[in-house]
Amino acid sequence: MKKRTTILLVLIAAGAAIYINNTSLLSSRPAGEPVILAHRGLAQSYDRTGLTGETCTAEKMLRPRHDYLENTIRSMEAAFALGADVLELDVHPTTDGKFAVFHDWTLDCRADGAGRTRDRSMAELKKLDVGYGYTADGGKTFPFRGQGVGLMPSLDEVLARFPDRRFHINVKSSDAAEGEKLAAYLADIQPPRRALLTVYGGNEPVAAVKQALPDIRTLSRRTLTRCILQYAALGWSGYVPEQCRDTTLLIPINVAGWLWGWPDRFLDRMDGAGTQIFLLGPYAGGGFSEGLDDPELIKNLPAGYSGGISTDALDLIVPEIAHRPASKDRSDDAAS
Length: 336
Prior knowledge:
Elements: H1 2-22, E1 35-39, H2 73-82, E2 86-93, E3 99-101, H3 122-125, H4 155-161, E4 166-171, H5 176-187, H6 191-194, E5 197-201, H7 203-212, E6 217-220, H8 221-234, E7 248-252, H9 253-256, H10 264-272, E8 276-280, H11 295-298, E9 308-311, H12 314-322
Parallel strand pairs: 1-2, 1-9, 2-4, 4-5, 5-6, 7-8, 8-9
Antiparallel strand pairs: 2-3
């Protein structure tokens, strides 16, 4: 009986220590507003039912709420003006040594072109209409056709137009050589500017970028998985694994609540490790690209949440954020 009592007391003490080490009740983190990552700038929404890697999302566009086209300078200007803190953009190498900012691997869906984006020069891509393929009625009308000619920017143009802004650069391939090309490009950028960038995408190109430029934040599915698993095993102690340091993490909102110290102790730890956090929409299997696009999901954020969120529907989410409570309710602490 004495032995059992001793074991019980030890377990209680251990549980209390873990709770104290992870409860946000003891965090001094001030209340704030979410840091907003606008995925593809101010973009058109589309029906996500039955999506596959081959789906042409321009053909599944929902009824337009605005006339902005993703990954264009104009949409980026509008996104920053609306309240975005960070923008995500997609890049492809071109035959003339540039990087084109465009979502799709091929030109057939959105633009009036054909074939792989990477098989064209930037000069050729500039001649295309990036609004050509958008339709919300099964091809009866194309509301942006003719309005996107010349609007596909190069990465040079984007960084020159927004020299002090934060960007997530999405490498749209699994080609390590593409990562090497991007690393060579980024190596010519001054470190303070590079510190505002995150490179994410395929495991191989992201690893190549990180190897060439250890100071830049990177993220791939491999590094995210390793970080989450290692933190799940060791985070109760306050330890932040190496895979979780000096990086950017995109975490589904329905996974975040299970992380040790969520929300404030977790955010404090990641801040201390030089890591940025952005919440995505609920994980339901498959990829991790869908953002917090439903305004109702914003109501599920902890009061005073000052980490990041990623959204494809900036125009819907910003007004909802403006109506969130400004103070924290520590009784809602969810230390795992």
